[in-house]
Structure formats: structure tokens, C-alpha cells
Amino acid sequence: MASAIGEPEVHRIAVIPGDGIGTEVIAAARQVLDAVTERHGIVLEYEEFDWSCQRYLAEGAMMPADGLDRLRPADAILLGAVGWPGVPDHISLWGLLIPIRRSFRQYVNLRPIRVFEGVASPVRGARPGEVDFVVVRENVEGEYSEIGGRFNRGFPDEQAVQEAVFTRVGVSRIVDYAFSLARTRRSYLTSATKSNGIVHTMPFWDQVVAERAAGFPDVRWDAEHIDALAAKLVLQPDRFDVIVGSNLFGDILSDLAAAVAGSIGIAPSANLDPTRTHPSMFEPVHGSAPDIAGQGVANPLGAVWSAAMMLEHLGHPDAAADVVAAMEACLADPATRTRDLGGAAGTREVTDALLAQLG
Ligand code: NAI
Ligand code: MG
User: Fold this and answer.
1) C-alpha torsion 2→136→128→25, nearest 10
2) CATH class of this structure's domain 1-106+268-359
3) Domain 121-137+165-261's class?
4) Interval between CA 297 and ligand 2 midpoint (Å)
5) Which one, 129, 171, 243, 328, has least CB within 10 Å?
6) Atom of ligand 1 nearest to the CA of 25
7) What distance, in Å, lies between the first and last C-alpha atoms of the chain?
């Protein structure tokens, strides 16, 4: 929001902690945000929503009928995780996350991947400081379309058809976003394709990538088939800078990449509407982790890093950098690593360490 000169800018943040460890990691992220915003003179105004599987069980819906309208005025949405045993995952996903991503045209899904000092990657060649890339996933079209159907149900000749939808507008804008992002980094882009096997949509994707590349002559780029690219992510993760992929390819690559980085507990994500017409949403990659929920052992860093991405999106890169620096310091010290990283610290100790760093 615009403000008078001398007054700090106020950002309205909608917070949806969700289920399980979602509530624990969001509480930690909010404390970190409080500390860093105070230090930088940033004002965040929070509105918290209890939308979750618990709400679904009590009231029959993940969010109220006017839920999207209540989020609309926010400058950003901070989400923990949704999902709980007893509620089918397609209900929690299609009742909350997917409507938010699609209605708010969050066509970019952004997942930074880094191997931090102190985090052991399962990949031998993934050394701290050397692996640092971003997966840019198309988030609203492609393979995850609702077009298709089932035919001759129950008969031997039963059929299922699912259409992938690739539009010139949709591919151009995600590729432009990825090229622009590469420009702010090491100016190298890799496009995930499969035009040798998928003969209509993927050659179209390749064609649009090549067309858009002409507008970014300063960015080096190449295209890799998704199968070979998956292998290279494991064998040479340090060679990548920005990877752009369709909805399905980006989905799979980003989970593979998060695994290469060492723990899903650290991985952050952003669902962006780069036009800023609608609020963007920031959330850790992990789910609600029912197996450890309520024990105080969840790693809060995925949510904290997501909150840092939110600060960056809101125009505060210095504050975001402070948060990431605090994370680095925290991970470098074995005493402040959580169980998923081989440590013994709980959510509280890690949060306290971050707050001390941001002192
Ligand atoms: P999950 O990410 O919740 O858990 C997978 C494993 O990683 C578990 O062993 C868990 O203990 C561990 N883990 C995850 N986050 C951690 C953290 N911050 N610190 C330490 N350990 C962590 O995935 P899972 O078990 O497949 O799904 C559980 C529920 O979460 C399901 O209902 C699923 O639908 C939902 N889910 C929601 C997502 C979202 O809200 N965006 C994303 C993924 C799953
Ligand atoms: Mg996924």
C-alpha cells in the first residue's frame, strides 16, 4: 500500500497455518518476521484464518464460501500446510490450495534449491555453496487440466482421456519470468522438455522458448529432455542456475531438487502472480507431517525461508537477506539443527537461534 513520505509501508498478510506442523512452523515464521521487520522498519498487518482439515471436519468445507474474497485484499498469503488423516488429500488440495493458486492467477511456482553448510545432501557431488539453483514451474495450465473424462465405465473397453493444455500466453509468460530471473542470477536457463516423445505440446513449448529467448540475448540457455535432466540433477546439480518446466515436469523436478538439497524441512516455495493483480502465496514445500505433529520437533526453516521470499516479493530484499543469513548461521551450528538434519534441536531452539541472529 502506498503511504505518505516518512511513514513505513504497511503490508497486509493473510496467514493460513493449516494443519499439523503447519501451525507450528508458521508460529515460528511469524516470530522471525516480527524480529526482522522491526529491524528494518517494515510494518506487516496480519489476518489469520483457521482454514484447515479440522474446519472441514467441523463445517464441511476447508474454507468459507467467500474465502477467496476474504483473501483478495491481502498483499500476500503465508500458508503452513494442509492435509490430515481422515480427510482425503484431494479434498484438502482442491478445497483450498488449488482454488487459491488458480483464482489468483499464481502462474509461477518458484522453488529455490541450495545446499547449505551443515546440511548433508544424499547426493555425493552436492557440496555446500556449489548447488544453488531455482526451479520455475508453470502453475496454472499444462498437464494439470480439468479437461478429459472417463468413457465406457466398468466395461472392458473403458477409457480415460486427459488433455494437456499449453497456450501461447501461458508458455510465454512463464518463460519470460524464468529468463528475467536468470538475468538477476548467473544468466543461464535450462528448459525442461520432452519433444521427442510428446509430439504436439512439447515442440510448441520448445518453439515458444526459442522465440522468447531472442528477447534475452544476454542469457545463455539450453533445452534438456526431462528424463536426461532428472539424471543430471542428481549427477551434476551444481551446473544449473534457473530451470523452467511445465506444470508436471516442474512438479517432479522441484521435489527431486528438494531431495538433492538435503531435507524437505528446509525447502520453500512461492506461488506468484507477477502482475501483482492478485496476492501471491508463500508456503514451505513440506506437508502437515502428521507423524511428528504436536511434538515440537518440526524444522521451521522451510516456512522461515518462504517468509523471506515473501519479504523479497513485497520489496524488502535486505530484510529477506538477513533472514537467509540467520538460517545459514543456524544450520552451520550442529546445536541448532533439527532431527530431520541429524540434530537434536526442536522448533523452539531453532526459532530462538534465528531470533538471536536477528537480535
Ligand atoms: P510431509 O511433507 O507432511 O511429510 C513427509 C515426511 O517428511 C514425514 O516423515 C515428515 O515427518 C517429514 N517432514 C516434513 N516436513 C518436515 C519438517 N518441517 N521438519 C521435519 N520433518 C519434516 O508429506 P506427507 O506425509 O506425504 O503428507 C502429509 C499430509 O500433508 C498429507 O495430508 C498431504 O496431502 C499433505 N501435504 C500438504 C502439502 C501442502 O499443504 N502444500 C504438501 C505436501 C503434503
Ligand atoms: Mg509436488
Assistant:
1) 60
2) alpha beta
3) alpha beta
4) 23
5) 129
6) 18
7) 27
